[in-house]
Amino acid sequence: MPPTFPPTLIGLTASIPDSIQFPALPPIASPHLLVAATTHPSIHGSPRQNEVLEMEAGKEGYEKLAHVGDALVGVIVTLMANDRYPGLPCGGATKLKALVVNNDVFADIARRYELDTSLHAAPNAAAMIKQQTRVMATVFEARVASTYYDYLDSATPGAYATKQPVVPAALPPLPALEDRTDGMAMDYLRAWIEPLFTPILQFAHAEMSSAVAVAESVAGSDIVEDYAAQGATSLLNTEMSKRKRPLPRYTSTNTQLGEWCTTCEVDWDGEVVMAEVVRGTKKQGMTVAAWHVAKKLKLM
């Protein structure tokens, strides 16, 4: 049976380890792109208007760049995961990507690159703004898009101008500006993104594999209990009726992980006997909780 990827794994359990070395950050040669990628909307002092069809001239900001950058990183990481872990089923590949392509990881990367130091925001709110995970994630996404467009817009893109390229000898000869294509720009971007995300992908895959092992061991015990608990609800109801006692009380609450925490409680000779279990459905939770109560009462 293929491994089941646990719904409880919704994020990395730790920040990106300090031992993971990041490649050099590609400089941005285009002054316009650099300003746009480092400008928070608060700098303009005007209210946000998310539904307008046209942006006001002169009000550059990183949000539009971030929209593109998020898509670019998503595509590259998806291809990387597929190439590195070809045996992963679609569900596993989707979960792996979600562990890597998210605000927490992007914000972590942005802070490691110290991109917060170059962010321009309203002076009275700058400190608070730079602490926000979503903001720093957006800063990273904007940097990704500006790196991509810098290759298409600048005669000499940043990584070619620096004495320390993103990956030594990895960048191909620079063609004339008019001969460059989107595909070339993607290759240029991948020269930075792939070495950046390769160890992060490996870290996330190791965490996911560990979570799968734990989930399978837990699932094994759940399966045994679920099988043994068949008929427990009816048995407990019948026993309580015979003793002319109130029927069992069940309460179920939905957890943040999408499962159900169910409690079964009975009054037994003046004593409250109860059991609590977590299952994927209310019905199964009631059955297993009833089984645990019945065991405590030595009915099973």
UniProtKB/TrEMBL annotation:
Name of protein: RNase III domain-containing protein
Gene Ontology MF, one: ribonuclease III activity
Taxonomy of the source species: Eukaryota, Fungi, Dikarya, Basidiomycota, Agaricomycotina
GO biological process terms on file: RNA processing
A Pfam family: Ribonuclease_3
InterPro entries the UniProt entry points to: RNase_III_dom (IPR000999), RNase_III_sf (IPR036389)
Domain RNase III: 33-152
